[in-house]
Amino acid sequence: MKKLNQRAWLFVTPVLLLVAFNALIPMMTVVNYSVQETFGDNLFFWQGIDWFEQVLTSERFHKALGRQFLFTFLILIIEVPLGVAIALAMPRQGFWVPFCLVTMALPMLIPWNVVGAMWNIFTLPDIGLLGYFMNHTLGIPYDMTQNPFAAWVTIVIMDVWHWTSLVVLLAYAGLVSIPNAYYQAAEIDGASGWAVFRFIQLPKMKTVLTIAILLRFMDSFNIYTEPFVLTGGGPGNSTTLLSIDLVKIALGQFDLGPAAAMSLIYFAITLLVSWLFYTLMTMNDNKS
Amino acid sequence: MRLKSLVPALYILFLMLPIYWLVAMSFKTTNEILAGFSLFPQTWTLANYTEILTDPTWYWGYINSIIYVTLNTVISVLVALPAAYAFSRYTFVGDKHLFFWLLTNRMAPAAVFALPFFQLYSAVGLFDTHIAVALAHCLFNVPLAVWILEGFMSGVPKELDETAYVDGYSFPRFFVTIFLPSITAGVGVAAFFCFMFSWVELLLAKTLTAVAAKPIAAVMTRTASSAGYELGLLAAAGTLTIIPGAIVIYFVRNYIAKGFALGRV
Amino acid sequence: MAQITLSNLRHSYRPDPADDDDYALKKIDLTWDDGGAYALLGPSGCGKSTLLNIISGLLVPSEGKILFDDRDVTALPPAKRNIAQVFQFPVIYDTMTVYDNLAFPLRNRGRDEDIVKRRVTAIAEMLEVTGMLSTRASNLSPDNKQKISMGRGLVREDVNVVMFDEPLTVIDPHLKWKLRSKLKELHQRVRATMIYVTHDQTEALTFADQVVVMQDGEIVQIGTPVDLFERPAHTFVGHFIGSPGMNVLPCEVKGGAAFFGGEQVALEGPAGGAADGKAEVGIRPEFVSVSTTGGGIAAHVRKVADIGRHKVVEAIAHDSRIHAILEGDAPNAGDAVMLDFKRSQTRLYKDGWLASRPEGDVR
Asked: Does B60 lie in the same domain as B23?
C-alpha cells in the first residue's frame, strides 16, 4: 500500500510550475482569443461563442476534420496489425535482435521535417528512387504534386515508414516478456498457432498495445510537419489535415479568433477520442 | 523459419530505402542530380558536406539544436525524477487527476501552441534563446519523463526505501546513492525519449527562434525554399541530422524494447 | 496410459558435444511403469527438467529413444504424445474463464461439447473448483491457478503421463501440503502415470511410490522412499536426503573391515566393491547414539541444536564432523561423549558408491 503523504506535493511542484507555465498560460491566451475579435493594436472586442459557431458550421473545418479522421483511421488500421505481425516474426534472441531494434528505431529519430524532405527527394517523379521506379520502370504515372490520390498514398506510406516501428517495438517488448512455459503448455494442450496468438500473445501484449494505439492516435491526429513539408497540404486542399489548416488560419491569414476556437475544439476532440479508446480498451480489466 | 525472418528483413529494407536515397543524393553533384536518374553517385563529391561544415549559418544550426536538446533533456529528467518518485510511492490529494492532466499535455497538438508560445516567450524576453526552446519542449517531454520514470520506479520494491531509512539514510542521500543507481536504465530511457522528441520537433523550435538559436531543421527549410533546387545540399544536411539519433540509439540498444514499453511490461 | 521406456538417452544443448561434461543428460536407461507415482529428485541443474522436457517432447534428445509402450515417440511433437505437463509457474489462459481453460485441451482435439462438459465438470469436482467455473482465470489466487493448470492436464481421459515441474514453487507454505495431498488423492483416483520433478525431498518422499534421484545428468538411485533413506546407493543420495544428511566418514579398509581414525567400525555385512579407491563409512544421524559411559568412538560435542521434536548433536571425532539425532536428553556443548553406530545401518562406500551388503546377503 502506498503511503498517504501530502508532502508529495513538494516533489511535484517543479513539474507543476514548469508545465503550468507552458500549458496554462498559452491555453488561457487561446481561450482569450477564442471569445474576442481583434483588429490589431491590442484592441479586443467581446465575441462570445461566435467563433465556435463559425468553426463548427464551416465546411472547411468539416472537410479538414474528415481528412484528419480518414488519415488517422488509415494509420491505425495499417500500422497496428503490421507492427504486431513484424514483432511476431522477429527473432527473440541472438545477434540480429539489437540489429533489428536499432535499424527499426532509426526513422523515429530523424527530425520530422527531414522525414518530409527525405520522402520528397525519394518520390520526385524523374529523379527520386520511388518516383523513377513507378513512372519509368513500372510505367504507372505517379506524381504527388499533381494527383491527390498519389499524395494521399504517399503521406500514408511515409507515416507507415516513420512510425510502424513504434508499434513493433512495443509489441516486441510485450512478446519477449511471455515466459516460455506458456508456449510449452499451449503446445501440450494442442493449441493451434492462431490459438497461441489469440489466447497467449495477444492478452500479454494488451497493455503495450493500448499504449501503442493511444500514442499512434494522438500523434497521427496531431501530425503537422511531415505532410506539410512533403505536400504543403496539396494538391489543392486534398492533404490539408487539421493541424495544417489550423496553422494556415492562425499564421497565414492571422484570423486569431477562429484559429483559437478551432484549437480548443481540436484539443477537445483529441482528448475525447483518447479517453474513448482508453476506456474501451481497459473496460474488460475491471470486470470480474 | 526462413520465411518468417523474411518479414523483418523486408521491413528493414523498406525502412532503409528512403534513407539510402537521401545519403546517395548527398554525395552527388548538382549537375548529376539535375541530369537525371542514377542509382549510385556517378562522381562522388564531398562538396555538399564541405559547404555545410564551413558555413556558420549551417553548422551553427547543428550546434543550436544540440544545445537546446541537451538543455531540455537535463531539465526534463531533473524535474521529473522527484515527481515520478512521489507518484510511485505516495498517495496524495489529487494525485490521479494531476497525473492525468500531465498526460493530456502530451495530447495537445503543437500547432495549437505555436502562436501563444511565441507571444509568451516574447513577453518574458526569452525569444530566440536556447532556453526558450528547451523550456517549450518540456511541455510534452516532462509528462513523458514522469510517466516513464514512474513505471521504472514502481518496479523497485518499496522495501528498499524502508531498509534505507532503518539504516539511517537521509532522504536526499538515499535518493542519490541508493535509489538512483537502481533505476539507471529508467533514467537512460527517459533521457533517450526526451532527446528524441526534442531533436525531431520543429514547429515550436522554429516558432521560438529567429537567428541566434535557429535549429538545423529550420535552416534546412529556409535553404530549400530560397535557393531552389539545391537537393544535394539538402540531402547532406538531412543525412547529418540522422547521425546524432543513430549514435544515441546505439547506446540504449539493449533497453530499447523495454524502454519503448515505458517500463510497463 | 502407457509404460514409458527411455533407452540410451543422451542430451546436450551444444551442437557438437565433445566429452561427457558437454552433456546435460549422460546416458539414461529407465522404465516408468504404467500408473506409477514417481518423483524425480535432484538439485538445481542436475538435468531433471531436461529429462522431463524430453519425455513431454518439448526437447528432442541428441541420442536415444523414448518408447510409449512399444511405440517409438522420439520424433513426435508434444501434442501427439498425449501427455500433460504442469509448470513451475501456473500457466493459465488469462482471458478465458476457468471452464474454458479446463475445456481448452479437449476442444483443441475436437471433442464433442457434451463430452467436454462431462469431463470438465468431473475434474472441477475433483479439484474442488466447481464454484469458480465461470470466473475469469486471471482473477484467481496462485494456488487456484496452479490447480487449474493441473486440471488442464488431467481433463483428457487418455493421457499417457502427467508431469509436474516443481509445481509448488510459488504456492504459500501453508497451502503446499494441501495441494500435495490433493495430488496424491488425484493420483489414486485417476491412476495415470505421474512424474513429479522437485528439488525438495519432503515433496518427493511424500508424493512418490518410486523416487528417481539425479545428479549431474545421471541417475544415482531409483527406489522407494524407505530405500533411499535406509540404503542410499551413493553418498550423494545420503547427503541429499535427510536432515541433516548422512554422516560420511573417511575410512581405511583392511581385510574386509573398515577403520575410522584407526578404530574399527562394524559394518552391516561383508564389504565388496573395488579393491582400491576412496573408502567411506556412511551412517545416518538417526542411527548414531550418544552416551557418556558406553562404548564407541570418543568425540567431543561442538554444538547442540534443539529443533523441536528432537535435538541435533554435532560432534567432532578424528577431525570429522558427525551428526546425531537424539530424542530427549542431550549432552551440552564441550562435553566428551562416546558415539555408537547401529551396526545394521552402517554402510561402506567406495568412490561414492555403496559397497557393503547386508549380513546373510550372498550375492
From this structure: no
Domains identified in chain B, total number: 2
Q: Which of C177, C198, C230 is a domain's end point?
A: C230
Distance CA C286, CA C312 (A): 9
Q: Cell numbers of C11, please? A: 542430451
Residues C255-288 have pLDDT tens digits of: 778 888 888 888 888 877 666 778 888 999 999 8
Nearest to A190 among C56, C89, C105 (CB): C105
Are B236 and B136 found together in one domain? yes
Pairing of strands C311-317, C279-283: unpaired
Q: In the prediction, which pLDDT does B227 show? A: 44
C195 membership: H or E segment, kind and range: strand C193-198
Residues B40 and B62 in one domain: no
* pLDDT at A138 > cutoff 90: no
The size of chain A, in residues, is 288
Number of structural domains (chain C) is 2
Kindly indicate the confidence band of residue A43, based on its pLDDT and cuts at 50, 70 and 90.
low
Is residue B123, in this structure, part of any structural domain at all?
yes
Contact B12 A103 (CB under 8 A): yes
User: C333-344: b or e for each residue (b if 16 or more CB lie within 10 Å)?
Assistant: eeeebbbbbeee
Please state, in angstroms and rounded to a whole number, the distance separating the CA atoms of residues C360 and C348. Answer: 16
**Smallest CA–CA separation between A229 and chain B, in Å?**
8
| CA nearest to C162 within chain A | A188
Least Cα separation, residue C305 to chain A (angstroms): 39
Place of cell 503523504: A5
In the numeric block, the cell 518408447 is attached to C67
Shared domain check, C202 and C157: yes
DSSP labels, chain A: -PEE-TTHHHHHHHHHHHHHHHHHHHHHHHHHHHTEEE-STT-EEE-TTHHHHHHHH-HHHHHHHHHHHHHHHHHHHHHHHHHHHHHHHS-SSSTHHHHHHHHHHGGGGS-HHHHHHHHHHHH-TTTSHHHHIIIIII-----TTT-HHHHHHHHHHHHHHHHHHHHHHHHHHHHHTS-HHHHHHHHHTT--HHHHIIIIIHHHHHHHHHHHHHHHHHHHHT--HHHHHHHTT-STTTT--HHHHHHIIIIIS--HHHHHHHHHHHHHHHHHHHHHHHHHHHHHHH--
Beta carbons of C89 and A195 less than 8 Å apart: no
- This prediction has a pTM of 0.81
Looking at the structure, tell me whether residues B85 and B168 fall in a common domain. yes
Domain that holds residue C308: 244-354
Query: B256, B258, B262: which to substitute to probe chain A, counting the most A Cβ within 10 Å?
Result: B256
Report the CATH superfamily, name and number, of domain A67-251+273-286. Answer: MetI-like (1.10.3720.10)
Residue pLDDT, tens place only, C180-218: 888 888 888 878 888 999 888 888 888 888 999 988 888
Distance between A102 CA and the closest CA of chain B, angstroms = 6
Domain that holds residue B253: 56-260
Query: Domain containing B251 — which CATH number?
Result: 1.10.3720.10
Determine, for residues B107 and A267 on separate chains, whether the beta-carbon distance falls below 8 Å. yes
Task: Give a yes or no: residue B51 inside a domain.
Answer: no
| Residues B33, B154 within the same domain | no
Answer yes or no: is pLDDT of A6 > 80: no
Q: How far is CA A53 from the centre of its chain?
A: 27
- The answer to whether C213 and C220 are in contact (CB under 8 A) is yes
What's chain A's Rg over C-alpha atoms? 23
Give domain status of residue C173, yes or no: yes
Tell whether B194 and B236 lie within a shared domain. Answer: yes
Question: Do C and A have ≥3 inter-chain CB pairs under 8 A?
Answer: yes
Taking any CB pair shorter than 8 Å as contact, residues of chain A touching chain C are 179, 181-182, 184-185, 187-192, 195, 199-200, 203-204, 284, 287-288
Amino acid at A127: I
Q: Examine residue C186 and state whether it is found in any structural domain, yes or no.
A: yes
